[in-house]
Specification:
The chain has about 190 residues and is of the alpha+beta class. The protein has helices at about 40-50, 65-70, 115-130, 155-160; strands spanning about 5-15, 30-35, 75-80, 85-95, 100-105, 145-150, 165-175. GO terms for molecular function: acyltransferase activity, transferring groups other than amino-acyl groups. This is GNAT superfamily N-acetyltransferase. InterPro entries: Acyl_CoA_acyltransferase, GNAT_dom.
């Protein structure tokens, strides 16, 4: 089996004022919180957004694991819709010490390049900063962080930097090369 070198960059914001919002895209693009935990919908988003960029860690999760994860306090899914069609999502997760991680963020392939990503990242980051307002018992957010890697979309890092995230760690590791799973077997990828 062959391996590839994968670079992972960790980025953070340490104050709400670090956020540099993107201009909202033209048209009817809305970002809405998915308030009802739905393993089916969350798995659809995960597989559809990450299918061409090697998101594989959750593909084997059984239904019960999805339920357990989505029902945790401080886990939120925010979905961008373009004229009523899901275009992408951002998943937030509260962590210890008033930290919120942007665990997943991205767009379905056919919605990339339409200026939706910057808007969705801006909106999701703002929701990370005010997460405690929606969850009793959570302390106000002191830090928002995320990671991206060399397998992610070509514009991911630039988007994070333009939104005010600062690099705080870089790691390079060898990973087994895997086939691109796609959103579903045989799907056409744009």
């Amino acid at each position: 089996m062959t391996s590839i070198a994968v670079t992972t960059w960790s980025l953070e914001q340490t104050a709400p004022t670090d956020l540099l919002p993107a201009v909202a895209p033209d048209g009817d693009v809305r970002v809405v919180r998915s308030e009802v935990p739905s393993p089916e919908f969350s798995r659809f988003l995960y597989a559809s957004v990450g299918g061409d960029i090697l998101w594989t860690d959750r593909l084997g999760w059984p239904y019960a694991r999805w339920v357990e994860h989505l029902e945790r306090p401080g886990v939120e899914t925010w979905v961008a819709y373009d004229r009523g069609t899901p275009a992408g999502y951002v998943e937030l997760e509260a962590q210890d010490d008033a930290v919120v991680e942007i665990v997943y963020f991205g767009l379905l392939p056919s919605f990339r390049g339409r200026r939706i990503g910057g808007h969705l990242l801006s909106y999701g980051t703002a929701r990370a900063w005010d997460l405690a307002d929606r969850w009793a018992g959570l302390a106000p957010t002191k830090r928002v962080w995320l990671h991206t890697c060399s397998k992610d979309g070509e514009h991911a890092m630039d988007n994070y930097l333009r939104r005010g995230f600062k690099l705080f760690d870089t790691k390079v590791e060898e990973e087994a090369e895997a086939a691109v799973p796609g959103p579903w077997p045989g799907a056409f990828l744009v």
